[in-house]
Please model this.
Amino acid sequence: LEVVVPPNREALLSWLREGRGDIAAGFWTGEPREGMTWSRPYHYSQPYLVSRSGEADLTDLAGLRGRRIAVPPDSPAWVWLASRQVENGYTLQGIDDDLVSEEIVDKVALGEFDLAVVDEHRLAVELAVRDDLRKQFAIGEEVPNHWAVRSEDVQLAKALDAFFKKEYRGTVYNITYKKYFENENRIRRQQAERVDRGDGSLSPYDALVRKFGEEYLFDWRLITAQMYQESRFDPKAKSQAGAKGLMQVMPRTAKELGFTNLQNPESGLHAGVKYMDWVRDRFPEDLPVTDRVWFSLAAYNAGVGHVADARRLAAKQGWDRDRWFDNVERAMLLLSKRQYAKQARYGYVRGTEPVNYVQQIRSRYLAYVNLLERQQGKAAQPLSEAQFVAMLLDGRPD
Model:
């Protein structure tokens, strides 16, 4: 058996048509595509509505009036929702079938999608490693999942059907399903492996990051995640705007902080952490510790003034101006719209950039935490607020 991995989901079928494979093993639903035959079902998945974590409980379609739901237009969930759309007053937003679940829920978390529909088992994988999403209620009935073969490969289709008939819900099937979809520790380990360099380090500059993290009271793993986001650990990196070095600091800012050679790894890193410290000092000390960090990251990316505008706008919208996730980040997205930007002291900002920036750094940071715990032989567990605060202050969970 040879396993070939196409670059994306849609390429599974195009490669199958081209003869670059004989079976397209995917969660195929609905009617078979042209020239394809679906196998008998090998799994049944329940679609669920997913929202941002700050949402209240949604219990039924009647509570979705005025909302916008992202769902693939050729899916059974679309058909089910469309048949009930008029009486319940929501809008359906068609999305590319090529989007994978991780991309869909990312867009929900970032506010690009209001709500979305995701299969329960794939949503469970995401919920095991993130806390910015909320599983709401089931949409429609369970949906059969299939594999695909070319229509002319009749014997192969029969063999595949016989295999699924024999193995469905059997011992091997159940063990495999639990291993990949229900074992949260394993899922977290997989997330950690995405950032594993294989040599026990997080970056080529761990010693320097630890040094400056301790000096300025930042968790060194958070700074490492930020450094990756800024430069992919390339000390020679230079942006179109002129920012340089590991932390992509503007030369003028660096000069004000006492640094000149930003492409020297130590100087570039030190300048970035010192600037982060300066940015953090622009926010009140009585803010929740974690949110003060998220505000600092957003301001590092978009500027202190735009974050201040977003906090003021959040308060006007009735959101918590002292919380980044689900509150001020939503206001930051609104500042991309003319009607809000023209009322802001610092004007327009492309809000998706700082929102993505904070989210991606946070995700990588948590992956680093899981990786180091795994390397130390500990079971990676979700962090309590107290542990998270402790790590942000001194880099060590209690």
About this structure: The chain has a mean pLDDT of 87. DSSP finds 18 helices and nine strands in the chain. The first helix runs from residue 9 to 17.
